[in-house]
Amino acid sequence: MPYRPKRPCNYPGCPNLSNQSYCEVHRQQARREAARTYNRNQRDMELQRFYQSAAWRKLRAIKLMRNPMCEVCYANGRIEKATIVDHERAVKDYWEGRLDMENLTSVCLSCHSRKTRKEEAARRDGNGEPLKQNDERISMWQRDDIRF
Ligand SMILES: [Zn+2]
Ligand SMILES: [Zn+2]
Q1: N or C terminus of the chain with fewer C-beta within 10 Å?
Q2: What 3-state DSSP class applies to 137?
Q3: How far apart are CA 145 and CA 126, in angstroms?
Q4: Is 17:23 a contact under the CB 8 Å cutoff?
Q5: Cα of 39 to ligand 1 centre, how many Å?
């Protein structure tokens, strides 16, 4: 085995010397972080694949045919063309509901951005955990302030 001089650990601020990139402590941490990143990327890929799937495209087209107008605007007495088919419960929180017609809402862009902002705020409040859902469906549309 060739001699390799010990170098400081690559972890910022760590004074430990090691003959690998990370010291014992940070090697484990680096491995855990890599696993987390891997899982996140896997999930993003799965989501991407879903949105490109024939099944989703077809369901989306049917939904827009049934409800061509923004359902949220309509409920508020406005007529606006729907351009987005939204999952009432986000796909990443409720994978089983991704192809459930009952979980879909036709919306316009501005209604969709408003809901996305609310969902993201709720996710942040929940420490990045998936949204908690009761058995009865929570309508994100009707909730102005979301607290869990
Ligand atoms: Zn270290
Ligand atoms: Zn709208």
Answers
A1: N
A2: coil
A3: 14
A4: yes
A5: 24
Segment (H or E) for 92: none
For residue range 94-107, list pLDDT tens digits in order. 999 999 999 999 99
One-letter amino acid at 145 equals: D
What angle separates helix 54-66 from helix 24-52, to the nearest 10 degrees?
A: 50
Q: How many CB atoms within 10 Å of residue 114?
A: 15
Nearest ligand, measured from the Cα of 112: 2
Query: What region, left, alpha or beta, does residue 49 occupy, with left being phi > 0 and alpha being psi -120 to 50 degrees?
Result: alpha
Write b or e for each residue in 6-17: b if 16 or more Cβ atoms lie within 10 A of its Cβ, otherwise e.
eeebebeeeeee
10 Å CB burial of residue 103 (0-12, 13-18, 19+) is: middle
Ion ligand 2 contact residues with beta carbon within 5 A: 70, 72-73, 80, 108, 111
pTM over 0.85: no
Predicted local distance difference test score (pLDDT) of residue 146:
39
How many Cβ atoms are within 10 Å of 122's Cβ, its own excluded?
A: 19
